[in-house]
Amino acid sequence: MLFIGIFRILGPAQIKGNLVIVIPFNFACVTGLENEFILDAIKSRDLCGNGKYTQYCQKWFEKNLPCVKSLMTPSCTHALEMAALLIDTQPGDEIIMPSYTFTSTANAFALRGAKIVFVDIKTSTMNINENEIESAITPNTKAIVAVHYAGVSCDMDLINGIAKKHQLIVIEDAAQGICADYKGRALGTNSHIGAISFHATKNITSGGEGGLLIINDAQFAERAELIREKGTNRAEFFKGLADKYFWKDLGSNYTPSELQAAYLWGQLQQIEQITQNRINTWNNYHTAFSQADFSRTALPAIPKGRKHNAHIFYLKAKDNSSRSKLINHCKDHGVAAVSHYEPLHATRLGESVGRFNGEDRHTSVESARILRLPLWYNMQPDQINQVISSVLAAKNYLSD
Predict the structure, then answer these.
(1) β-pair partners for 355
(2) Cα angle at 190 between 350 and 153, to 5 degrees?
(3) CATH 3.90.1150.10 is right for the domain spanning 2-30+271-397
(4) Whether the Cβ atoms of residue 378 and residue 274 lie closer than 8 Å to each other
(5) Strands 193-197 vs 69-73: parallel, antiparallel or unpaired
(6) N or C: which end of the chain has fewer CB within 10 A?
(7) CA 169/CA 192 separation, integer angstroms
(8) Phi then psi for 207, rounded to 5 degrees?
(9) Those residues with Cβ within 8 angstroms of residue 282's Cβ, 6 or more apart along the chain or in another chain
(10) pTM to 2 decimals?
């Protein structure tokens, strides 16, 4: 009966061994509007990609980001793989990126035979250290991938300036960046190509998986449609611009189900409300921990000119050992706090497909300190307060 009571008050709980985690790390966003559009898509029996809801979503992004073209994909991983194909990545090409990122960032280019060149991060944002990029450039460098960690932008002016000087392509991995911006420009639109994720862990989702390819340079627009349609001009055929379609380019099946698009369309109707709700929770955390005299280095920083989206609220423990103790402490208090990425360059595969340029001063050390707190749409005040209380009771584990 006690468990049922907790369930009714605080929502579904996760069970790990004999321990009930009352405050899960994440719940996928659900607004209630998704049902109407999913049912409509089912009734239409037009469930293949590029149906009306796919078109609704893509037009929404093209207007509201804005961008030259947007193409929904089954995942952000697929969007990044399309980007690698679009820039004609070849064996021997070098792609610069941070090591502190998800495997998809590197996989997309390693699959095409590229050498991944990892550079160090900034401690303040966990983003690529823009000042380390230029020293990593060689005659084989083709592109720079800017990863916007936690929905907080890299310095895109500096990155684009370096790229222009060396005639390189810039790709934004804005997987975590929906509704965040850099100097008023949406993340994913400050480069040649961008990619956004709608995975269940992101601020909005297209039903568990999903992604978006963002084209900001018109030279890539036409080919992007070919690649997305298995290398055929099928999109032209359905627009009435060709009497038949045939194989024209390399590609794959990068179109999502119409059910994914219908789900996302429901979320887009309340995207401002969803974002503001998450920001309110983020602000509650930040205010509480700031007032508790947490060290400045323990709290996330938002540089001037960046608008974040409250995708992640993290704290930094003193070291890896302290982080483990804090995670266990939170579990004991019914809160699922978790770590994040392990540096890619330190893995066996990372060593085989890439190299770390310069000195790893911050990537390994800082990634071992990160602790992410529960944050999802429509968290209740008592849930937020329980997370805060749990952390405050063990703040001795946090950064000095």
Answers:
(1) 117
(2) 65
(3) yes
(4) no
(5) unpaired
(6) N
(7) 7
(8) 95, 30
(9) 308, 310, 313, 375
(10) 0.93
Question: Is the confidence at residue 296, as pLDDT, over 80?
Answer: no
- DSSP strand E in the chain: where? 14-16, 19-21, 69-73, 94-98, 115-119, 141-147, 169-173, 181-182, 185-186, 193-197, 211-215, 306-307, 314-316, 354-356, 370-372
Cβ within 8 Å of residue 17, ≥6 positions away? none
Question: Which pLDDT score is estimated for 131?
Answer: 98
In sequence order, the 6+-apart residues with CB closer than 8 A to the CB of 44 are 51, 52, 258
Domain boundaries, the chain: 2-30+271-397, 34-268
pLDDT for the residue 4: 31
Please give the span between the terminal C-alpha atoms of the chain, in angstroms, as a whole number.
42
| Top-confidence range, 48-57, 236-245, 384-393 | 384-393
Q: What is the CATH number of domain 34-268?
A: 3.40.640.10
Separation CA 48–CA 180 (nearest Å): 30
| Residue 334 scores a pLDDT above 70 | yes
Q: Which residues of 204-233 are buried (b: 16+ CB within 10 A; e: fewer)?
A: bbbbebbbbbbbbeeebeebbbbbbbbbbb
- Tell me how far apart the alpha carbons of residues 112 and 87 are, in angstroms, rounded to a whole number: 11
CA–CA separation, 155 vs 202, rounded Å? 22
17 confidence band (pLDDT: 50, 70, 90): low
Please state, as a whole number, how many other Cβ atoms lie within 10 Å of the Cβ of residue 189. 23
pLDDT reading at 6 higher than 70: no
What is the number of other CB atoms lying within 10 angstroms of the CB of residue 347?
15
Q: Which residues contact 276 (CB under 8 A, 6 or more apart)?
A: none
Q: Tell me the per-residue pLDDT of 231-283, one tens digit each, with 9 for 90 and over.
A: 998 888 877 788 888 899 999 999 999 999 999 999 999 999 999 999 999 99
**One fold for 2-30+271-397 and 34-268:** no
Q: What are the residues whose beta carbons fall under 8 Å from the beta carbon of 293, sequence distance 6 or more?
A: none
